[in-house]
Structure formats: structure tokens, C-alpha cells
């Protein structure tokens, strides 16, 4: 579906703005988002998700300060070879992830809630992007909980039953393994300041170098 058809169907700028306003009461925390991205988000909010969480022994503000830096994935992502920001400002944030496997994914941030989290679209091409949500919850002054959920783009094209079977048998276990490693990497970096090594919590069939599988 192209941008003009999205407009005809009524997917305008109010879609993501209204969703974020309901969640936070502040629609100004949204990034500049094109109509096609809004349509993608509306489809992906209805598909199965994979999610993992971790408790980090640092304040939510401190952890978010790490995530606010351009190229932050290079510090803690065990499958990320390079993380290059192509736009990193108040109104627009985009970057590129180069995985050790050779995959190259682009991230377009669609909402940014300072100190609490963000939402983004992730994929190898504009047409094939998944919805990823990072959410921080303060536990106390010295601890927080970080959760990441992924709504995979292939599910937007198939019936619910087919999605559920594929999700439980194939995609969810692999995504949860991936999210576990990413979350453990951020926890380690936040608590110790030590940069994470490649495949530190094991290799991944999609994102690790073939020589490490």
C-alpha cells in the first residue's frame, strides 16, 4: 500500500499522536512520522508480539541517558557490529544497525518519551518493518525495569491462526533469545560500564556471524 492510498483510507498524522497522548498525556513526544509509517503501525498493533524484560541496578534516568546517545547499540548489543545515526535530533531520530551476520536494518523512531521509552519501526526495507517498543519503569531511586516488545512485520499479511502457529513454534523463541541477549547487554553496560562482546550470551541464527554459529 502506497502513501496516497494510506491518505485515502484516512491514516493521517493524528493516528500515532492520539495513541501516544492516551498513554502519556503528551502528544508532543512523537517524532515526525510519514503516513506510510502510520499505516504500518496500525497494522502491527494487531499482531502477536514477543517480549522480554530485565531489572537493572541503575535509575531509569541513567539507563535512558545511555539510550539517548547516538550509536548506543554499539556499547551493549552483542549482535551489533555498527550502529550509525543518520538523523538524531529532537524531531527526528533514525539510525542503521549493521549485524555481524551481514544484515543491515534501519530504525525509524516514531515516538520518544523522555525517561520512559520509545517506539520504532525496524527492518531491512521500508516495506518490511516490525514495530519495536522499549519501555522503562522506575522501581526505586536505584533500580528500574526495562521491557522490549517486538511485533513482527510478516504477521500483518496472514490470518490470525496461521500467525499464532508460526509465532509459537518458530518466531517467538528466536525473538525472545535475541531480546534476552540485548537486555543482558544493556544491564551489564549500565551496571559495570563494560562494553559487551560479540555473542556474549550465545550466538543467534539470524544475527550472528556464520563463523560463530
Structure description:
The protein has 213 residues and is an alpha+beta fold. The protein has a single domain, classed as 2-Layer Sandwich (Alpha-D-Glucose-1,6-Bisphosphate, Chain A, domain 4). The chain has six helices and seven strands; from the N terminus they run αααβααββββββα. A seven-stranded antiparallel β-sheet has the order 1-7-6-5-4-3-2. Strand 4 (104-113) and strand 5 form a beta hairpin. The longest helix is centred in the C-terminal third of the chain and has 33 residues, at 160-192. The protein is globular, with a radius of gyration of 17 Å. The termini are far apart.
Question: Averaged pLDDT, please?
Answer: 84
Q: What is the CATH fold-level name?
A: Alpha-D-Glucose-1,6-Bisphosphate, Chain A, domain 4
Number of helices: 6
The geometry reads as globular
- Total number of domains: 1
Number of extended strands: 7
Roughly how much helix do the residues carry, as a percent range? 25-40%
Indicate the structural class: alpha+beta
> What would you say the CATH architecture is?
2-Layer Sandwich
Biggest beta sheet attributes = 7 strands, antiparallel
- N to C succession of SSEs: HHHEHHEEEEEEH
Share in β-strands: 25-35%
CATH first level: which class?
Alpha Beta
How far is the first residue's CA from the last residue's CA? 37 Å
* Low-confidence runs: 1-28
